[in-house]
Q: What sequence folds into this?
């Protein structure tokens, strides 16, 4: 099984989109006057709920920003969300970044959809990107992923690793995006071993209730599933997922990480021996790819799909204990081949 967990490779951005290297971008003249002249700055990202330090989704985006900054030598910006913010707050944040001259400007997360649609129309010379949502606009790139495919592989791994024939799924918020994670995971489990039971649970109905930003909620949910004999728990819950991993490690059962290779995350090092694997999506590669396309003066627009075939999603194999689970490595490799060939069709609901 081939690892694709190193976000700084940005393989999906380079290989699948065939982007070529160009010279560095300009630096700021620090003019905030929308009518004044200023050189373009570099990449700016606006974080989703949970912000930088979630060891998952947002940190993956930051890895892409860091790669772009190091390679192109330009100024970058990354901006945190605020508690209980509105679409108007997001619109103001994106507008401010575009007005300062950042290009591209990327909203990390589907919640930026309405704001980006409004702001992109006001700044037609700026390229915008949005992760996990589709926004129409001549200057907007929608960076979406086949999360269900990575989750299917996670389900295969879980079915092979469980000893109790019971595994869990913890979703941060009960929304269509997270349903894709659940659907792929459950299908992977059932296709591998129909006798394995999956216990699904969502932390909240809305993001505003803290489903993606409350490790305590994740921990409580995992503890409840462990009481029901789940010995592998897959979480798609942003910052809340840290609580799931903590609970799993305390109970000495397996956790499955998400988005980033969570076995490699320094903040999760105390629990790493119990992080079996992680369902990856190369948000960092997508962020870098869009930034590079702007550098090349060939900005990406429209819907850009990052799937298993282009290594936009996958499954990590950093934990050496993963190879010790009988049949797991071969089963995941076979499932990956089936998905990329089209013989396995992964459900999204």
A:
């Amino acid at each position: 099984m081939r690892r694709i967990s190193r976000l700084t490779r940005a393989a999906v951005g380079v290989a699948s989109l065939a982007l070529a290297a160009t010279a560095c971008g300009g630096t700021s003249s620090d003019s905030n006057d929308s009518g004044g002249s200023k050189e373009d700055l570099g990449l700016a990202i606006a974080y989703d709920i949970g912000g930088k330090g979630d060891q998952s989704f947002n940190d993956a985006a930051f890895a892409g920003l860091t790669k772009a900054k190091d390679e192109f030598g330009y100024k970058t910006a990354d901006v945190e969300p605020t508690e209980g913010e509105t679409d108007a707050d997001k619109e103001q944040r994106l507008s401010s970044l575009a007005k300062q001259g950042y290009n591209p400007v990327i909203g990390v997360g589907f919640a930026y959809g309405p704001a980006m649609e409004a702001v992109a129309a006001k700044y037609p010379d700026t390229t915008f990107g949005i992760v996990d949502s589709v926004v129409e606009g001549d200057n907007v790139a929608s960076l979406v992923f086949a999360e269900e495919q990575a989750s299917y592989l996670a389900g295969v791994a879980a079915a092979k690793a469980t000893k109790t024939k019971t595994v869990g799924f913890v979703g941060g918020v009960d929304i269509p995006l997270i349903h894709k994670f659940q659907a792929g995971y459950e299908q992977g489990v059932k296709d591998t071993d129909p006798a394995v039971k999956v216990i699904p649970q969502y932390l909240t109905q809305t993001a505003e209730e803290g489903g993606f930003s409350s490790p305590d909620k994740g921990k409580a949910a995992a503890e409840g599933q462990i009481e029901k004999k789940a010995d592998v728990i897959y979480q798609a819950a942003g910052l809340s997922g840290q609580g799931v991993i903590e609970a799993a490690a305390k109970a000495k059962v397996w956790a499955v990480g998400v988005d980033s290779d969570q076995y490699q995350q320094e903040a999760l090092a105390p629990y790493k021996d119990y992080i079996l694997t992680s369902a990856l999506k190369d948000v960092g590669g997508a962020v870098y790819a869009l930034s590079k396309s702007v550098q090349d003066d060939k900005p990406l627009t429209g819907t850009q799909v990052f799937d298993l075939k282009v290594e936009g999603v996958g499954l990590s194999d950093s934990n050496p204990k993963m190879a010790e689970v009988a049949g797991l490595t071969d089963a995941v490799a076979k499932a990956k081949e089936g998905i990329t060939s089209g013989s396995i069709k992964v459900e999204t609901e």
Q: What stands out?
A: The two ends are 27 Å apart (CA to CA). The chain is about 35% helix and 20% strand.
